[in-house]
Amino acid sequence: MCNLLTVRWTITPRSPPEPWLACTGCSIARPFRCSGKTRLNASGRRLDAWLIYKCPVCDKSWNRPLFERRPVQDIPPDMLAALQTNDPIWIRRQAFDLAALRSHAFHIEECAEVDVTKRVLDRPDGWSILHVELSVDLPAGIRLDRLLARELGLSRARLQSLHRQERLRLEPGRSDALRKRVADGASIMLNLADEADQTMIGDAASGHSRP
Ligand SMILES: [Zn+2]
Questions:
Q1: Residues 136 and 190 in one domain
Q2: In a domain, 211, yes or no
Q3: Is residue 81 part of a domain?
């Protein structure tokens, strides 16, 4: 379609989720921070690996098991190399593994602060519909309406009103999708044909503003 301004937003959470754990140093539950470091321990032909978390107040550590007593030959070589070199990209991916964290902590605090990188894929003259594609490769704890309000400079009330009028359409299209967390592959269509601030919203969506 030639009336679509298409942009891709890549959403990156600023910090990994923090599991709430009973800190034995503070004698109270605290959200523990991922240190970004791992520990590898060999016992014969078997290995243990942990990801280290720290209490932000007393620095007490908690070792989250990545695997335990695993025979060396059963560990994929790339995983072993990542552990031996403390590969930051691999570690970051483990730090965002919510399912693994949930098995250890009664509550997980997710970071709602995200960085958004915007790329224009197509901006034809005379566009009237804004199409935003979301790319979210690590779990981000921000709701879709908050993200759109902040990045487009619109109030959440106006977004809800546009949604009710079906001028804002979401894919996947659940009725409560605006209040749900952002999801990879989600697509937002916003019909701005009759909106006075169409250009301003389009510029905000594209990642630049005009004087
Ligand atoms: Zn503590």
A1: yes
A2: no
A3: yes
18 Cα: distance to centroid of ligand 1 (angstroms): 14
Spell 56-65 as b/e; 16+ CB within 10 A means b: eeeebebebe
pLDDT in tens, 146-190: 999 999 999 999 999 999 999 999 998 777 889 999 999 999 999
- Burial readout 11-23 (b: 16 or more C-beta within 10 A, e: otherwise): bebeebbbbebeb
For residues 163 and 174, state if they share a domain.
yes
Residue whose structure tokens are 């709430």: 20
Total of domains in the chain: 2
Question: What spacing in Å lies between the alpha carbon of 27 and ligand 1's midpoint?
Answer: 7
Same structural domain, 8 and 24: no
Ligand 1 mean position to 90 CA, how many Å? 27
User: How does pLDDT run across 32-59, given as a tens digit for each residue?
Assistant: 999 999 999 998 899 999 999 999 999 9
Place of tokens 């140093």: 25
Residue 146 C-alpha to ligand 1 middle, in angstroms? 32
Residue 206, token pair as written in the block: 């594209």
Residue numbers of the domain that contains 82: 18-109
